[in-house]
Amino acid sequence: MKFRLENASVFKKMVGLVKDIVTDVNLVFDDRGMNMMSLDSSHVSLVEIKMFAGGFDEYECEVPVTLRVNIALMDKIMGLAGKDNSMTLLYVHSDSIAQFVFENAAGDRQTEFGLKLLNIKSNILSIPEMEYNVVVITSSSEFKKKIDDLFKFSDTAIILAEKDEMHFALDGDIGNCKFTLKKNDNTDIEINDPVSASFALRYLKNFANASVLCDRVTIRLIKGQPMRASYEMTNKKMGNDNDKLGTIAFYLAPKLASSLRAAWDKHADSHCCVCGAEPRTCWCGEDQIWDVVDQWMETADEASTMPSNEDNAEVASFSSVMS
C-alpha cells in the first residue's frame, strides 16, 4: 500500500484534530481509499474519516490492509513535516512497520520515520443510515466562534432548530445567552421537523476546530439521536475538478436527564441480541434494550428542552440513543 500527498498539511491538520478525541485507531485501506472510524474512550463521540483514492496525488492498494496506530504518536510524526513538504506513506503487507516519508519541494531534504503498528484487536463499527430532521450548511468559522463563545460560560449547549432558524443557547447560574443562525445567502437551513437537544460543549469545541480544513460545515440533527458535523477536505495541489480528498465527520450523543441515564444504566448489562456486541457498543440497531429507549423518548422530549448542567444531566453513550 502506498499513498502520496504533495501537500502534507491537510493530513497533518486532520491527525491533529483527531488526537484530541480518540487514542488508538484503525486506518483501513482498500482500492477505494482510506477509512477510519473510532469512538472516544467514554463512547460519547465518534470520528469518521473517508479519504478517496482519487483525491491523493498517488494511491496504490492492491490488497485491503488495516493499520492500527496510536493517534498521539502519529501526530508527533506528522510534526516532522515542514511547510510545503510532501508526504508518502508506505506499507508492505504483513509487515509490522508503516513508513512515513516527508520531502521538501526542492527534493533535497527528506525525513523518514518507521512507525511500529499496534497489535490490538478492536471491534469494527458501522453507522446505520438515518434520515435527518435538520440539515444546516454554514460557515465553519462562524460555527466555531459561536461554540467558543458559549464554552466561556457553560459546559452545555442547547441546540434548537425550528422555523428556518438554528439557535445555540445556554442557561446557567450566571445568566443566559443565545446565538441564532438564520437562513440567508451564507447559511442554508432545511428543517423537516423541529429538534431540540443538549450537547457537551467540550466535544463541540473539538469538532469546531475542523474549520482549519474547510470553510463550510454541515450540521445534521435528528430527534433523540447523535448530531453529525461534517467537513469536506480538498487537495489544493491537484488543481482540477477531482481535488476532493475526503470527509471528516464528528458524531456526538445528546445529553440525557439523570433519570433517563439511570434507566439506561439499569439495562446496560445485556449484550445485543443480534450482533452480540458488548453493552454500550451496539451499532446494528437491534439492541434488545430499545424498547426501554422508546419509552424514554416521551419524557426525553420534555427533558431535552430544559437547561442542562453536570448536576442534572449526563452525556448519553451512543448505544443508548442509536436505533
Automatic annotation (TrEMBL):
UniProt record, GO biological process: leading strand elongation; mismatch repair; regulation of DNA replication; translesion synthesis
Subcellular location: Nucleus
GO cellular component terms listed in the entry, alphabetical order: PCNA complex
UniProt GO molecular function: DNA binding; DNA polymerase processivity factor activity
Residue ranges of every copy of the Proliferating cell nuclear antigen PCNA C-terminal domain listed in the record: 127-236
Keywords, in A-Z order: DNA replication, DNA-binding, Nucleus
Predominant place of localization: nucleus
Keyword Secreted: no
UniProt domain Proliferating cell nuclear antigen PCNA N-terminal: residue ranges: 3-121
UniProt-annotated stretches for the region Disordered: 301-323
Function summary: This protein is an auxiliary protein of DNA polymerase delta and is involved in the control of eukaryotic DNA replication by increasing the polymerase's processivity during elongation of the leading strand.
NCBIfam families for the chain: pcna
Similarity annotation: Belongs to the PCNA family.
Record-given protein name: DNA sliding clamp PCNA
Organism of origin: Acanthamoeba castellanii (strain ATCC 30010 / Neff)
